[in-house]
Amino acid sequence: MMNWRSLLLRHEAILALLLVVVLVFLAQSSDRFLTVDNLLNQARLMTEIGLIALAMTFVIVTGGIDLSVGSIVGVVAIVLGVLWQNLGLPLPVAIVLALALGTLCGVVNGLIITRFKVPPLIATLATLALYRGLAEGISQARSVRGYPDWFLVLGQGQVLDVPVQVWLLVLAAIVAACVLGLTVFGRATYAIGSNEIAARFSGIAVDRTKILIYGASGLCASLAGVIFVSRVTTTRSDMGSGWELDAITAVVLGGTSIFGGRGTIIGTVLGLALMQALKNGLLLQGYKGDSTIILIGTALILTVLLSNLVPLLSRIAGRRRPA
After folding, report:
1. CA distances from residue 36 to 29, 46, 157, 275 in whole angstroms, order as listed
2. Residue 87 DSSP label
3. What is the pLDDT of residues 291-314, one digit of tens each?
4. Maximum distance among all alpha carbons in the chain?
5. pLDDT digits (tens, 9 = 90+) for 141-178
């Protein structure tokens, strides 16, 4: 009985209930919302932010933050186009090199944070500007178009009537959940976020773990950039602008503590789904983007308050219960 009660009081359970309520409300508000085509399309649209949010979960669980992911998307997209169109490299080679560059950008973030002891907020704020500046400098305000059809399948194709990138997101979520919840690396991630000093004394390679996590963040941002280019069929230096805030919002909405030590992939996925549902539902009802931002902010505040208030009330009730 106690186990079931603890499960129902988890942040993820509260968020799942809120998601169901939102889906029911939006379905009643618009007959176009709860259709297979619309739901698959929304899953496709949230893939890029979702990939970034999965890696951001690891980052925030360690007590860190990565503000540079949106800029990494931009620089990877530009480099992909330049390597293919301007330098004449085969597109598969250009994709691999672009992904490697994005991963390197993430590793650089990790090195700055671990080797030079720069706070993650400051370090990634600086690289946000650096990587965006590189993207704009390389592009010279020019876009790249004319990608081959086989490349467009990544962002526009379907497998078993489900968009290709949705399959990629599902696979990435499963891998991330297994790594964070079932492996030694995942336990080390939680340990670092809970108490970094104690983690060091326990023999955990804190610096190496952080570098790997920030490198993975760069890789996921790079993959999101490649998929986005395939979906919109063009390359611009402003791609990914503001995506870091959306990813962080999804992660925090999903119950990951901004102070580190707590968080789950399932929570991030639920937070991401709630955000996308609100965006789509309000758009179908004719509301502008400002309304969506306000509602998502309100939902974020309410879920955080509920996740903290319900356990508190439960403890108070437990103290008052007679022996």
Report:
1. 17, 16, 16, 18
2. S
3. 777 877 777 777 667 666 655 555
4. 77
5. 788 888 999 999 999 999 999 999 999 999 999 999 99
Q: Please give the C-alpha separations between residue 273 and each of 33, 73, 97, 145, 233, in angstroms, as whole numbers.
A: 14, 21, 31, 31, 25
pLDDT-based confidence at 11, cuts 50/70/90? confident
| Residue type at position 31 | D
- Residues 211 and 13: beta-carbon distance below 8 Å: no
The pLDDT score that the predictor gives to residue 99 is 97
How distant, in Å, are the alpha carbons of 20, 119, 179, 316 from that of 99?
36, 26, 21, 51
Alpha-carbon gap, residue 79 to 232, rounded angstroms: 16
48 phi, psi to nearest 5 deg: -65, -50
CA–CA–CA angle 179, 183, 186 (5° rounding) = 65
What the block records as the tokens of 306 is: 């509920």
Token representation of residue 309: 């208030």
